[in-house]
Specification:
about 210 residues, alpha/beta, Rossmann fold, 6-stranded parallel β-sheet, two-stranded antiparallel ribbon, 7 helices, 8 strands, about 35% helix, about 15% strand, binds magnesium ion, binds zinc ion
Length: about 210
């Protein structure tokens, strides 16, 4: 069995995009909106060099909502892979959840449903673990959302919440959510040191 690093896509490998129509940060929906997070390619390169299998796990409810076509999702993923490869980074597998529990007016009814793969559910991780003979107990889940942490916990992985929040703020945020990651890292460089070298992140203190 192998160890994996499961990793969220939006906000972790690529930057979020400001959607002017709705005034929110959203996933990139077309190739031109894709901007890899600095350091993400190097992180994937190093984490794979250390012997980890990398699985991107991402919720893409735009498919259910009818705001994102599968072809566009593939095009975004392809562009992200191209940018990460500039620094020698790649993933081994990418799994996405196309569902949304609804209601999704004008959406695609095939994908509007309660599923077992939309994070915080753990279906994406469990399915990949089965398909690739992954040992979940020695694997990690990294994400910038509490749904990522919850999915990782449910799958039995160690979990890392990525956040640039000061530690006192992060603690408050975590208290509200009731979801406890095993570790909080400021960025992927810290996550790499933790996973590869066992170096516990220095938590930020209020200055
Ligand atoms: Mg995210
Ligand atoms: Zn799903």
């Amino acid at each position: 069995m192998k160890s994996a690093v499961f990793i969220d896509r939006d906000g972790v490998l690529n930057r979020m995009v400001f959607d002017e129509t709705h005034g929110i940060l959203d996933s990139p929906r077309r190739r031109g909106q894709v901007e890899a997070v600095p350091g993400a390619g190097a992180f994937l390169r190093e984490i794979r060099a250390a012997g980890n299998f990398v699985v991107v796990v991402t919720n893409q409810p735009g498919i259910a909502k009818g705001t994102l076509k599968i072809a566009s999702l593939n095009s975004v993923n392809k562009e992200l892979a191209r940018q990460l490869a500039v620094d020698g980074g790649q993933w081994d597998e990418l799994r996405f959840c196309p569902h949304h529990p609804g209601p999704c007016p004008g959406g695609n009814p095939i994908f509007v449903k309660t599923c077992a793969c939309r994070k915080p559910a753990s279906g994406l991780l469990l399915d990949a673990a089965r398909d690739f003979d992954i040992d979940l107990a020695t694997s990690w889940m990294i994400g910038d959302g509490l749904v990522d942490v919850a999915a990782g916990r449910r799958a039995g992985c160690r979990t890392i919440l990525l956040t640039a929040l000061k530690w006192s703020m992060a603690e408050r945020f975590l208290d509200c959510a009731g979801g406890e990651p095993d570790f909080v890292c400021r960025n992927l460089a810290e996550a790499l040191k933790l996973i590869r070298d066992g170096e516990t992140p220095a938590r930020q203190r209020e200055s």
